[in-house]
Amino acid sequence: MKLENKTILITGGTSGIGEQLGRTLKDKGNTVILMGRNPQKLHELGQLGFKTLLCDLNDQDQIEDTVLKLEKTFPKLDVLFNNAGVQYNYFLEESLPQAEKIYAEVQINLSSQIFFTQLLLPLLTKDTASMIVNTTSGLGAFPKGNALVYSATKAGMRNFTKGLRYQLRKTNIKVVEFIPPVTDTGMTVDRDEKMMDAAALVETIVPQLEKGKAIATIVKMRLFPAIAFFLPSLAWKIVND
User: Fold this and answer.
1) N or C, which terminus of the chain has less Cβ within 10 Å?
2) Are 154 and 109 in contact, with CB atoms under 8 Å apart?
C-alpha cells in the first residue's frame, strides 16, 4: 500500500514520533490529520497545512464527538495510527498509591485506543485498502521496573493488535504493529541512554508499512521479544540497566 494521496489520522500527533510521522507523510502528498490535546500546538501545526483534531483520549465523550467530526468532514479514512501514549515512572513499592496515574495510563494507552479503533472501523472499511498501525513498545515484551503500568498497557496493545489482525483478515484492513526503539522525544528527554532520532526512525518504518509488514520496527527490536522469552534475566538487564 503506497502511502501517497491517502487520508491519514495520527493520534498523539503533536509531538515526538507522531509529529514526525505526520511531517514525513504530509511531504509524500497525503492529507494528514493530527490529533492531540494541546490546542496551542494543534494551532501551530494547522498553520503548516495539517488537519487537526483536539481530543483527550482520557475523555470518552471527546472521543465520540471526535469520531462524529471525522465522519462529517472526511468521506473515508485510509490509515489510522494509534500512536498516543503517556508514561509515568515510579516503583509501586516505593510510592504512594497512584490511582490517577494508573487509570490514565490504562485509559490513554489501551482502553480508549481500542474504543476509538472500533468506532472508526466503518470509515476504514469504506476504502479498498486501509491500514491500522498500533504503536507498542519493547516493554510490551518485557516490563521495565519503574514503568510497570506502561509496560502492561503496551503488552495489552500488542495482544490487541495481533487479535485484531486475525479478526480483520478477511476485510480490506491491514493491521500493523509498530515497535519503536528508545527514541529521542519529549517522553525520553531525561534518559541517559542512546536514543534513535525520530526522523531516522520514521524513514526506516514508512517503507516497511508500504511493503505490508505485519511488524514495523528496527532489527534489534525484532530480536528483543525472543530474548525476553528465552533469556528473561538478560531482558531485565537490557531494560532496567
Assistant:
1) C
2) yes
Instruction: Confirm if 151 and 140 have CB atoms less than 8 A apart.
Output: yes
Q: What is the total residue count of the chain?
A: 241
Q: In whole angstroms, what is the distance from residue 57 CA to residue 134 CA? A: 15
Instruction: Say if CB 139 and CB 87 are below 8 A apart.
Output: no
Put the strands of the sheet holding 7-11 in their side by side order.
51-54, 31-36, 7-11, 79-82, 130-135, 173-179, 215-217
Query: Which position has the higher pLDDT, 81 or 192?
Result: 81
d(CA 148, CA 169): 32
Distance CA 137, CA 212 (A): 19
Which residues, in sequence order, are CB contacts of 173 under 8 Å at separation 6+?
Answer: 121, 124, 125, 130, 131, 132
Q: What is the DSSP pairing of strand 130-135 with strand 173-179? A: parallel
Classify residue 107 by its DSSP letter.
I
Cβ atoms of 34 and 52 within 8 Å: the answer is: yes
Q: Kindly provide the residue ranges of all beta strands, DSSP E only, lying in 55-136, ordered along the sequence.
A: 79-82, 130-135
Answer whether 76's CB lies under 8 Å from 123's CB: yes
Angle at which helices 198-210 and 16-27 pack, to 10 degrees?
Answer: 60
pLDDT tens digits, one per residue of 137-192: 999 999 999 999 999 999 999 999 999 999 999 999 999 999 999 998 766 656 66
Record the cell numbers describing residue 94, joined without a space: 516505593
CB 33 within 8 A of CB 53: yes
Give residue 186's pLDDT: 66
Most confident of 73-77, 107-111, 184-188: 107-111
Taken in order 14, 63, 68, 7, the sign of the CA dihedral is: positive
